[in-house]
């Protein structure tokens, strides 16, 4: 008889994924990958260095002096500095606001889970009915799924679960039709581990309506609101408590709406165009202003200036949309994983109490 496999819980601690710190093997000043923006600015730096080399060559061997008065540099420096400061401050404000909204959503989920699990218990020492236990467990999993739905929605990863029109088309297609099962298997196999865990949290048979314009996070909050109503009707929550839970759902939807605003409202294109043009103009005029005094040293000087200015702009570009997969984006995966582990531990403890065993909810 084969030996039974015992599952061991992976060691963890609160905020293990969101606040994990690895020892830095290389000082940050020497790092040119993993979080650096050098790949974004490499091309413009090379192009400006090439232009500076051309200016120096023409100035020394072809046309004579082609320099311009160096007094133009301070005037342009003020404009470039102001535009870069505005861009970076605006981008970081979007990053910080997005992080605060994610914290608000996580706090609302924690509060709702806490109130649901404490309120869902048998009356007068009686065990909770099986249907009520299943309903409570389902809605707690839905609350975790809301976090994943928000993350995927902000990253434009839709059709998890299959959209309603796609699902209807699949239901209408006979299973014996050639290629039917192969298509379904390709959909299932296409889900990675993280997405499979997310799908396992959703109610069985749930169909999304994203193909009709309804975001899955809002659809899931309708399920949560319905549970609050059912809990009030069966006496799990009194009226003020049910009202407070509804407020938590409203706060969650409001925070998600603000994250959507960040995601769908880019920096105005007029500002981006003018900033690019002013930055390129400044870096192109710089070698003309310093070529007489610096000669060939004008090339590394332009490289340093271009590296500095385009680097600041590159940071602003990455922070502008903080919900993606870049190293500098918000650690949404880790934050959501920490919240999932917290809630699942609470759910397991509640299930033990519902079965009459000792636990924190007894």
TrEMBL record:
It is a multi-pass membrane protein. It comes from the Eukaryota. PANTHER family: PTHR33281:SF16, UPF0187 PROTEIN YNEE. It comes from Pleomassaria siparia CBS 279.74. Keywords: Ion transport, Membrane, Transmembrane, Transmembrane helix, Transport. Coiled coil: none annotated. One of its GO terms (cellular component) is membrane. The chain crosses the membrane at residues 40-58, 64-86. This is Uncharacterized protein. Its main location: membrane. It is found in: Membrane. GO terms for molecular function: chloride channel activity. The keyword Magnesium does not apply. Pfam families: Bestrophin_2 (PF25539).
């Amino acid at each position: 008889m084969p030996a039974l496999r015992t599952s061991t819980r992976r060691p963890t601690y609160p905020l293990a994924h969101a606040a994990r710190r690895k020892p830095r093997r290389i000082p940050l000043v020497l790092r040119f990958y993993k979080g650096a923006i050098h790949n974004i600015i490499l091309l413009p730096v090379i192009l400006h260095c090439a232009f500076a080399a051309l200016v120096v060559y023409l100035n020394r061997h072809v046309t004579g002096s082609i320099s311009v008065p160096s007094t133009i540099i301070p005037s342009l420096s003020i404009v470039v500095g102001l535009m870069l400061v505005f861009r970076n401050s605006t981008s970081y404000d979007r990053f910080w606001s997005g992080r605060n909204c994610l914290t608000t959503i996580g706090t609302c989920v924690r509060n709702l889970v806490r109130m649901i699990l404490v309120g869902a218990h048998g009356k007068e020492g009686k065990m909770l009915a099986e249907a009520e236990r299943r309903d409570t467990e389902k809605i707690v999993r839905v609350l975790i799924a809301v976090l994943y739905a928000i993350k995927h929605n902000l990253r434009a990863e839709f059709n998890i679960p299959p959209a309603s029109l796609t699902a209807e088309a699949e239901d209408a297609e006979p299973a014996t039709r050639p290629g039917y099962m192969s298509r379904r298997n390709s959909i299932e196999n296409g889900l990675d581990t993280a997405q499979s865990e997310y799908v396992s949290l959703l109610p069985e048979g749930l169909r999304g309506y994203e193909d009709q314009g309804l975001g899955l996070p809002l659809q899931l909050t309708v399920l949560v609101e319905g549970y609050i109503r059912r809990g009030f009707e069966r006496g799990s929550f009194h009226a003020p408590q049910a009202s407070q839970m509804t407020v938590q759902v409203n706060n969650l939807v409001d925070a998600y709406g603000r994250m959507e605003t960040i995601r769908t409202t880019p920096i105005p294109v007029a500002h981006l165009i003018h900033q690019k043009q002013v930055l390129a103009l400044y870096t192109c005029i710089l070698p003309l202003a310093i070529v007489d005094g610096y000669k060939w040293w004008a090339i590394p000087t332009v490289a340093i200036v271009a590296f500095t200015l385009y680097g600041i702009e590159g940071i602003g570009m990455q922070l502008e949309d903080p919900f993606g997969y870049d190293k500098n984006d918000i650690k949404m995966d880790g934050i959501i994983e920490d919240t999932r582990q917290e809630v699942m531990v609470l759910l397991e403890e509640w299930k033990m109490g519902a079965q009459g065993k000792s636990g924190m909810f007894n």
